[in-house]
Design brief:
This protein has four helices and no strands. It is an all-alpha fold and 112 residues long. It is globular and about 45 Å long.
Length: 112
């Protein structure tokens, strides 16, 4: 396994643990950024470290593939995704509209 994939997956495990610690009624949807690393490791047969298994609620000796499946199940069936600022907890008022500022690469950012 590439060291970068392992490092990225370690970060996701910490995020997953923080997300699960939030009561379900206050929890944001699972973030889409988990999808890529989970897909990359969905067939990895290597065992996870015991502390990661504990954080994910998986049995000892669980594989990276089992952890990836857990992350993918969290995303499956969702119809909305959180803004990065709304993770791991939902925004206090979901009716608040976010102001999106034009970026230099936007066609409409620079008016003639």
């Amino acid at each position: 396994m590439h060291p970068a994939a392992r490092l990225q997956f370690e970060r996701l495990i910490g995020e997953y643990a923080r997300w699960r610690a939030v009561p379900e009624t206050e929890r944001s949807p699972a973030p889409a950024w988990w999808w890529g690393p989970a897909m990359e490791l969905r067939s990895a047969p290597q065992s996870l470290p015991a502390e990661w298994c504990a954080e994910l609620g998986l049995p000892n000796q669980a594989t990276y593939a089992a952890a990836a499946e857990l992350l993918l199940k969290a995303i499956a069936g969702q119809t909305t995704l959180p803004w990065p600022d709304d993770f791991p907890r939902k925004a206090p008022d979901t009716k608040l509209a976010r102001e999106l500022h034009p970026q230099p690469s936007d066609d409409g950012a620079f008016q003639p």
